[in-house]
Sequence to fold (290 residues):
Amino acid sequence: MKLAFVFPGQGSQAVGMGKGFAEEHLDRASRLLGFDLKKICLEGPEEELKRTEVQQPAIFTVSAAAYDLLIKKGIKPDVVAGHSLGEYSALYAAGSISFEDGVRTVNQRGRFMQEAVPEGTGAMAALLGGERETIISICLEIGNVWPANFNSPGQVVISGKKESVALAGEKLKSAGVKRIIPLPVSAPFHCPLMKPAADKLSERLAAITINNARLPVYSNITARPVTDGGKIKELLVRQVTGSVLWEDSVKNMIDEGVSKFIEVGPGKVLAGLIKKISANVEVISYEEVN
Fold:
């Protein structure tokens, strides 16, 4: 019976997150970044917290603080995984990346991703219902639109050029997708349009130390465990333009003996996804741990 810690990505933020336990971590992050991340996190405004280069270090910092809280309580994971940005929090938990490098890197990652595509030209949409293979083939047929996240059975996110995402939406509706929800994002994440961001991130990662992980980290790109520091770097670069295989990752963790998941960070997005992937595992938030 194994325990997995899972770490959320963008979209899980909320003003006030980290209150009562993350202040020290937020102070450290504010000093590293040169702006008052703590104030934005705890007091807002929400619009400022939503900015990707603010949101990414904010979620990373609060997730790191939540992880440190669990460790103080004597609760340790057997394996870790994170959704997109959350992979950096998972790597912090696995001892691969330092808090300082994590904060600075995800802030830059956010900026690189924002700069990669002119604002308003890209889009993302969540698809509810529909078959995975059908979604992949329609995206291929239309071009300039790609599956970005395979989140859970019947929930896939697509990403790409605005007009291509809209066209894919129309085609996918007639191919059995029940609902298409445009996402309020500032850029089309996890698709080849992010190549300029991946190139810049590669340079940034080359300048920092990524240690071999102390425990298995399930990669978004392969849905398989990885511990080698060099391989982790390569996968983090590929993750910027590639699909997040979250459903596959969770299924593989369960197949390899994970029976309990703790969501470590703000929100309960991953708990909801995991419950859709399997009804036979326990899923709780770090806040529910005594």
